[in-house]
From TrEMBL:
Annotated keywords: Transferase
Gene3D superfamilies xrefs: 3.40.630.30
Originating species: Paludibacter propionicigenes (strain DSM 17365 / JCM 13257 / WB4)
GO MF entries: acyltransferase activity, transferring groups other than amino-acyl groups
Name recorded for this polypeptide: GCN5-related N-acetyltransferase
Keyword Transferase tagged: yes
Matches recorded under Pfam families: Acetyltransf_3 (PF13302)
Biological classification of the source: Bacteria, Pseudomonadati, Bacteroidota, Bacteroidia, Bacteroidales
N-acetyltransferase domain sequence ranges: 12-173
InterPro entries: Acyl_CoA_acyltransferase, GNAT_dom, N-acetyltransferase
Length: 173
């Protein structure tokens, strides 16, 4: 059974990403920063995006009760980014990640959504330890992870990848 928990912050709604979000996911996954820092997911149309959501996002939501969330601004109901908790192959524990459309960066939405999701992960989902990975060149992401309280633990290379990534972590004390 899929648990569709919606999470609210002062300015945002974090709702589980579903197939109806395909057009937005297509746009986000093809932004220059996504392609540079996260990688090409070969999502070349809204149809590809719907399939990506169905095969890559929804199974974890169904299995664990949390996953990828579409971030919606409450003032105008515009989808501005994603924030999620991921059971990622090659990483111990749960990985937090986030990405926003270029027009919504630098306005505190990343911190607001990720901080609330971290809180819910520890208090409601029972997650004991949270990790995050980022490219060595993604300085803004590194700063945000540190602001969230995550500490640099070292580096890692994910299975079937070549790039060495920075690995951050935080424990639920």
């Amino acid at each position: 059974m899929i648990i569709r928990k919606t999470i609210l912050t002062e300015r945002l709604i974090l709702k589980p990403t579903i197939e109806e979000d395909a057009e937005f996911i297509f746009e986000l996954l093809n932004t220059p920063k996504w392609l540079k820092f996260i990688g090409d997911r070969n999502v070349n149309s809204s149809i590809d995006a719907a399939e990506y959501i169905k095969t890559r996002m929804l199974p974890q939501l169904e299995r664990l009760g949390y996953g990828n969330y579409t971030v919606v601004r409450t003032s105008d109901n515009v989808k501005i980014g994603t924030c999620g908790l991921f059971d990622r192959e090659g990483l111990e524990g749960i990985d937090i990640g986030f990405a926003f459309l270029p027009g919504y960066e630098g306005q505190g939405y990343g911190f607001e959504s990720a901080n609330k999701l971290k809180e819910v992960a520890f208090e409601e989902f029972g997650i004991k330890e949270m990790n995050a990975i980022t490219s060595k060149e993604n300085i803004n992401c590194q700063k945000l992870l540190e602001k969230l309280g995550l500490k640099l633990k070292g580096t890692t290379i994910l299975p079937n990848e070549k790039e060495e990534l920075l690995l951050y972590g935080i424990k639920n004390e």
